[in-house]
Amino acid sequence: MEDHGTIIKEVFGESSDSEGDESDDHQNQQFEFDDPNGERHSQLIFGESPSWEPVSEINGLFLCRDFLSHDQQSSLLSAIENEGWFTGASHNQAMRFGDLPQWATGLAKLIREVVHFSGQVSEFVDIAACDDHRDTCLLPSNLLWREPFFDQLIVNRYQPGEGICAHVDLMRFEDGIAIVSLESSCVMHFTQVESKGGIIEKESERDPPMPKIPVYLTPGSVVLMWGEARYHWKHEINRNPGFQKWEGKDIHQKRRTSITLRKLCHDE
To answer: Which top-rank group of organisms is this from (predicted)?
Structure first.
């Protein structure tokens, strides 16, 4: 397999900061490891690893704000533009299934590597056995090492004022979802869904509104959702006036691009 340095260069391009490159050469180290499937990996890990933070109110929800550098974000946006998906105002979403573009598979590899080298991967294969480790387990090992890691891609392009309604991702997709944010910052709100017998029910108009948990997504950040966060919490982005605030201040609305990576459920 390609090493991490090669993936970075092919997917995100070279850094334009020559001084940063020179300093990084002294900090980067090469690592090799075997995954649970017996495959040998070789990667270049940066001196300072991206940091993950759990959303304390929601089990299975983790945020990495410094996942992509500014240069990596610019190169990723260029790769998306080169696909030619967004040629008109009415073209604001692209979906791909199965074989994903090279930049998307590279992005998936990078997510896997950053999670693996965080040291916060549960050794438990059964997700239910991770209950005592939800504050520290970024992703259960059976999700991290599945093949392919992701095989479904959605790229959304939102203009100022455009967002997405509250929803739980379709059950046709497996557990473990990643969302990468580019361009504009925004607040994604999570609302718990009541369920009975494992079946998610719609809220009644008579029910009191469920409290919303805000999560601030900055450009270059990635969100991981699994377990309860994936199945028992709706997520939404309301970019109408008055809804996009963080720490009491309005967020300046610009165009936002999001990349969602998921894996389809396949029949045995």
So the answer is: Eukaryota
For 163-190, what is each residue's pLDDT tens digit? 999 999 999 999 999 999 999 999 999 9
Say if residues 44 and 113 touch (Cβ distance below 8 Å): no
For residues 223 and 179, is the Cβ–Cβ distance under 8 A? yes
Cα dist. 67→114, 166, 179, 231 in Å? 8, 25, 11, 24
Distance CA 194, CA 202 (A): 8
Q: How far apart are CA 261 and CA 268, in angstroms?
A: 22
Q: How far apart (Å, rounded) are the C-alpha atoms in residues 227 and 205?
A: 27
Q: pLDDT, tens digit, for every residue of 213-237? A: 999 999 999 999 999 999 999 999 9
Place of tokens 């009975």: 196
